Amino acid sequence: MRSMSLKESYNVRLEPVGIEMDVEEDETVLEAAFRQGVSLMHGCKEGQCASCKSILLAGEIELKKYSTFALNDMEREQDHILLCRTLAYSDLEIELLSYDEELLSRSIPVKDFAGVVTGITRLTHDMRLLEVAIDQPLKFWAGQYADITLPEPGITRSFSMANPPGETQTLAFIIKKYPDGAFSAQLDGGIDIGAELRLRGPFGTCFRREDRDGPLILVGGGSGMSPLWSILQDHIDSGEQRPVRLFYGARTADDLFYLDEIAALGRRIADFAFIPALSDADGDTAWSGERGMIHEVMGAYLNDLDLDGEGDAYACGPPPMIDAAIPILQLGGIESDRIYFDKFTPATG
Ligand SMILES: Cc1cc2nc3c(=O)[nH]c(=O)nc-3n(C[C@H](O)[C@H](O)[C@H](O)COP(=O)(O)OP(=O)(O)OC[C@H]3O[C@@H](n4cnc5c(N)ncnc54)[C@H](O)[C@@H]3O)c2cc1C
Ligand code: FES
Asked: At residue 1, does pLDDT exceed 50?
């Protein structure tokens, strides 16, 4: 049905799930879904990651700018589209290439929040913990993220909540600082306690699935610890009893943080191991842990777990790390549809 607003609005039918919704002329199909509480597969929301790739069965559309890594020319010729880039010019019929019944049933409508910075803590030389108090509770699942906007100079970036979902009004984010990062470099002197922010969320499909069997595998690199930290705490709060393995890739020992906190959480899990691996520690004779890329190190540990299709994996962090980790997780015995990931793709604007 057409909406009564002055904006032109079209009907979108999503197959094979049979969901219908409106899309307004100036919003993408994915934005329309968020507005109406329909949780479709997505990642970056910026045409970079391909998570929202679908097929246009009928209707007229325009695609906003996207990366050909996410949608190549041949796919485009075969009516593939990215929902986060799709503007409607008529009623549409779309076939979802991937969808998740659990995601659809656990949709949380996206809302806007006003926030105030309550803490910026140094975790390592380039990692900061940003804490933000918001004006109303944010309901989210462990592993999800929010878009945070710095009003001055008007920069929006995605950051994953590091706190467990039970903490709804003070949020924490583990953020890697890039020297020339428009947002992250502001964390050293640019913004301070009391600074006002805007937040929008929750977003993301890499959230903790409940009541599953088999081990819980968490794998991250750099600021990928942020959503994993929330998932780990939420898992403990849930009281579920599963073996947990936390794999974490860093360059040197100076990049590691939360070691005492990880050990303390680990003591609350019957079968837990934290496996950090350093990729650039050749000269570090004091380091007695694993060396090499985290995905390579992970393979041997997964073999020892003898997974055989059981277990869930959550992988968060730099896109190359995720791309390398997924086949290792599959080879290690985790079903493809039980591997959840968030690629921290760089922003496009
Ligand atoms: C779903 C999602 C969740 C995310 N969650 C988090 C999180 O919890 N914590 C967190 O720290 N970040 C997270 N990110 C990344 C974050 O949104 C920003 O992209 C990142 O903080 C850089 O923003 P910036 O404005 O500081 O840098 P920009 O101004 O955007 O980039 C400046 C320069 O920094 C470098 N750079 C920026 N991003 C990257 C990158 N990903 N890899 C390599 N070099 C880069 C490049 O040199 C670039 O030219 C997430 C991203 C996505 C898509
Ligand atoms: S390409 Fe659409 S969500 Fe990433």
From this structure: no
